[in-house]
Amino acid sequence: MNKVLAWLGTFFAVIFLAACAADSGDDTAVSPTNIPETEDNIITYEELVVGYSQIGAESEWRTSNTASIKEEAENLGVALIFSDGQQKQENQIKAIRTFIAQQVDVIGVSPVVETGWDSVFQEAKDAGIPIILVDRRADVDEALYATYLGSDFVEEGRNAAKVMADLLEGQGHIVELVGTVGSAPAIDRYAGFREVLAEYPEMQIIASESGDFTRAKGEEVMGDFLRQYGAEIDAVYAHNDDMAIGAIRAIEAYGLKPGEDIKIVSIDAIRDAFQAMIDGKLNATIECNPLLGPQFFDLALKVVNGESVPKWIPSEERVFFPENAAELLPTRKY
Ligand code: GZL
Ligand code: ZN
Q1: Residues 146, 133: Cα–Cα separation, whole Å
Q2: Which atom belonging to ligand 1 lies closest to the Cα atom of 183?
Q3: Distance from the CA of 314 to the center of ligand 2, in angstroms?
Q4: Is position 19 within any domain?
Q5: pLDDT at 7 exceeding the cut of 90
């Protein structure tokens, strides 16, 4: 009999203790779902989930930009959901909607063109998911994105014109290879170049057409310019190195010497541009830094953790010339 009593006593004692612990509000009584949060809800890179909508793979600049973002996610242990938009805005909008449905912590996007983002950005805001603009701006209300990480494309255009004025000694006929129509870099590089060119009445842009930032299209459009204007052309202003490399091919096919008969100034400062300067076929390239991965994830974590960040973080950029291209080429990371 007393064994039964002893067993019963123990049984009720255990029940009593568990009941005390459970309602003591003591948070050490851990049940499987009650995982202790890090103090005041700060999340770490390992816990961060990022949706990234990339434009495409149209240029060497873009592929280096993608590599920087993917490598940095790997380094930091961030869960990156990456979408390649094949240079179509509707693909980017679809990707952003998917990220919202997946309830990612933050969305990075490089908008292929400036307009058409208001509604999908509003959907992200309504879902409480911050947007970070990377590389290119979108023409939306500032309240619809947390911050913009990218270049001052107008300044790049101004720098290109200053270099061109020196090269042509203030006079000559220029043809222009414009970037993707409607994109922030194309719009701003177009404007910045003309802002400085206004100071040189003897320098005229005699033709301007989009080569969509690609080598193939740059070569095709330059071929058209040469058929139309021939040796009247003194110089090419290309909104990126890929189109400049296409133009070099077209100029050589036409029987003229790029970099000598026709001067060329372009933007990005990719490795192939350094090689073209070493070969005497390109006269200058304005840097536009694609290696934005580290800065992007630093910003993403700050934004998700509610830290305040500036509305625009401009990239640091320089101008490069043939004189030191050979010495610098081995140091270039893209
Ligand atoms: C500029 C970037 C542009 C590059 C091109 O930051 O958006 O797009 O200049 C790229 O090479 O295609
Ligand atoms: Zn830039």
Answers
A1: 8
A2: 7
A3: 8
A4: no
A5: no
Residues facing residue 284 across a β-bridge: 265
Q: Closest ligand 1 atom, CA of 150?
A: 6
Residues 270 and 301 in one domain: no
286 Cα–ligand 2 center, Å: 8
Contact predicate 265/235, CB 8 Å: yes
Hey, how many other C-beta atoms are within 10 angstroms of the C-beta on 165? 18
Q: Determine the average pLDDT of the residues in 108-122.
A: 98
Distance between CA atoms of residues 70 and 76, nearest Å = 10
Ligand 2 mean position to 157 CA, how many Å? 10
Whether 250 and 273 share a structural domain:
yes
Rounded distance, CA 59 to CA 157, Å?
19
Rounded to an integer, what distance in angstroms lies between the CA atom of residue 64 and that of residue 333? 9
At position 334, the amino acid (one-letter code) is: Y
pTM (two decimals): 0.84
Residues 57 and 130 in one domain: yes
**What digits encode the pLDDT tens for the residues 251-310?**
999 999 999 999 999 999 999 999 999 999 999 999 999 999 999 999 999 999 999 999
The domain of 233 spans 153-288
- Rounded Cα–Cα distance for residues 129 and 319 (Å): 37
